[in-house]
Specification:
64 residues; mainly alpha
Length: 64
Amino acid sequence: MAARTREPGLRGSIGSFIGITALVALGALAIFVVVDPRTLPWIQAEAVTAWSALVNYASGLRPR
C-alpha cells in the first residue's frame, strides 16, 4: 500500500512564503552592502527588527 502524501496546508505555505521572501530580501540587501559598505549598520538593525517580527509571528502559528 502506498503512503499518502500530506499537503502542507496553509501554515506550511505561509512558512515557505516567508522563508523564500526573507532569502530574496537578504540577497537584495547584500547588494547594498557591496555597493556601499556604510549601509551595513542600518541593514543590521533592520534585520534584527525583521527577525523579531518573524519569530513573534511564527510563535502565533504554533499549535497549542
